[in-house]
Q: What sequence folds into this?
């Protein structure tokens, strides 16, 4: 664990470049092109978007290399791909395919119920999901170059992403007021290394970019998470499960850039047609939640 | 190096990318700065930084928010500095049809010329700043490569025989980032030699 390592900084550097942008889930070359044309800063190459994974059930795994290669050829923006939690062999495959970012994602079926991938060993940067500060700091100590909220993927319900953003920011605020003794105690409570806890206490924010994901479906959802402190937005099912993906994608990009200006968000929200239908996160039984993975 | 000038205002194009890193470097040098998200704010500033990020996204948003004409005019004469994607935006020619550059400096640029993220790297680059050799902490992240240097453009630094830091009368471009490290030299150079003198 060396946060001054030059290669680690290069990995975090790419995350910095993606700030103020939208990362879109895509399952085909055609969708990837639409995403790039609508202004996405990166695409996430997948076999199925989260709402389909949720509907289909079964084991969700890393995408077929052919899908990833095809998307890499089709667009010039960074291409991300997901591996299962703890599945370092899938991560090695994705690195061999030269994807630009790996999402160790709860949306796929976890491969290891105990350990996450040791992300320090990789040249490709990783993003990991979290619900609270403890999870975020554990992932950072494992080498994650970017953190995102888990939210509840595939629902089109932004409430869980909002909960996670608020949890993280209020916990960080508390750290900044704590004494060394208290930081020692809280590090144990969070099951996170003291060095990382102290880093956050000093900075007042995470040492890596902090993005939002899980349930963002409209331009106003995107503006909401940006206003709550997210530095960029991942949109999964929200774009290609909407009535008009091209227009919706474009509108969400506009809302992320101009989130401080409600008039612009209002304007880009007009006439988008039906948003993804979605499912209320509160109606999902504990067993079917992706975020607890 | 002399203390940087007062009473100047530097804008950072904040449509997308690592604009906050540039803003915090300016703050550390006690330079007033402002995020630029709309064309009408360009009249308030003495110089502009176009940060790293995704050039396809930036080019798209410049048109979407109707900033192109004002930006082209500004970059033709006022002090501007582009890093990475910012360099792509300031060039004359870019090898990708989704990026319409601002044509502020006579260069041709190849996007991601140094390769995908697995080939991104950190190095130290020796640059000629104010007639002195200075070592810069340089992060090349999916960095653009210069493929043609036009007349009137000076090469201030090269890496493996390829120019990576260049300037013209009002324009400074770098294919790498110094703002990701604690390296204020280029920001200071831009403010002293371009913005304060203009």
A:
């Amino acid at each position: 664990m060396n946060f001054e390592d030059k290669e680690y900084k290069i990995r975090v550097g790419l995350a910095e470049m993606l700030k103020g942008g939208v990362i879109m889930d895509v399952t085909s070359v055609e969708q990837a092109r639409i995403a790039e044309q609508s202004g996405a800063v990166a695409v996430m190459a997948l076999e199925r978007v989260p709402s389909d994974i949720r509907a289909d059930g079964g084991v969700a795994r890393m995408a077929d290399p052919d899908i990833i290669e095809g998307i890499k050829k089709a667009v010039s923006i960074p291409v991300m791909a997901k591996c299962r939690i703890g599945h370092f062999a899938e991560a090695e495959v994705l690195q061999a395919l030269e994807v630009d970012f790996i999402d160790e994602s709860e949306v796929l079926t976890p491969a290891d119920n105990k350990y996450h991938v040791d992300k320090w060993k990789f040249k490709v940067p990783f993003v990991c999901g979290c619900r609270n500060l403890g999870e975020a700091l554990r992932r950072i100590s494992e080498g994650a170059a970017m953190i995102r909220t888990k939210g509840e993927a595939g629902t089109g319900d932004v409430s869980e992403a909002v909960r996670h953003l608020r949890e993280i920011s209020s916990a960080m605020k508390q750290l900044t007021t704590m004494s060394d003794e208290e930081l020692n105690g809280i590090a144990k409570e969070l099951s996170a290394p003291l060095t990382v806890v102290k880093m956050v206490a000093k900075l007042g924010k995470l040492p890596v970019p902090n993005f939002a994901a899980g349930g963002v479906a409209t331009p106003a959802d995107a503006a909401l998470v940006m206003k709550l402190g997210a530095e960029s937005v991942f949109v999964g099912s929200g774009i290609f499960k909407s009535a008009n993906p091209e227009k919706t994608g474009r509108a969400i990009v506009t809302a992320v850039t101009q989130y401080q200006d409600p008039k612009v968000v209002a304007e880009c929200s007009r006439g988008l047609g039906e948003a993804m239908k979605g499912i209320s996160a509160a109606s999902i039984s504990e067993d079917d939640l992706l975020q607890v993975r | 190096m002399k203390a940087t000038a007062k009473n100047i205002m530097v804008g950072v194009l904040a449509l997308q990318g690592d604009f906050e890193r540039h803003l915090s470097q300016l703050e550390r040098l006690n330079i007033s700065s402002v995020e630029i998200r709309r064309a009408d704010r360009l009249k308030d500033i003495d110089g502009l930084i176009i940060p790293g990020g995704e050039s396809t996204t930036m080019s798209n948003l410049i048109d979407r928010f109707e900033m192109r004409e004002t930006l082209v005019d500004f970059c033709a004469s006022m002090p501007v500095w582009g890093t990475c994607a910012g360099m792509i935006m300031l060039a004359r020619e870019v090898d990708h049809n989704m990026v319409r550059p601002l044509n502020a400096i006579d260069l041709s640029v190849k996007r991601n010329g140094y390769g995908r993220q697995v080939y991104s790297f950190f190095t130290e680059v020796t640059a000629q700043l104010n007639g002195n050799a200075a070592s810069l902490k340089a992060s090349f992240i999916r960095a653009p490569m210069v493929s043609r240097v036009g007349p009137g453009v000076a090469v201030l630094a090269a890496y493996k025989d390829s120019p990576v830091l260049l300037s013209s009368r009002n324009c400074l471009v770098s294919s790498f980032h110094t703002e990701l490290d604690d390296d204020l030299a280029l920001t200071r150079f831009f403010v002293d030699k371009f913005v304060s003198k203009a």
Observations:
- Chain A has 13 helices and eight strands.
- Strands of chain A lie at 22-26, 42-45, 79-84, 101-105, 126-130, 146-149, 210-211, 233-235.
- The first strand of chain A starts at residue 22 and ends at 26.
- Residues 23 and 234 of chain A are 5 Å apart (CA to CA).
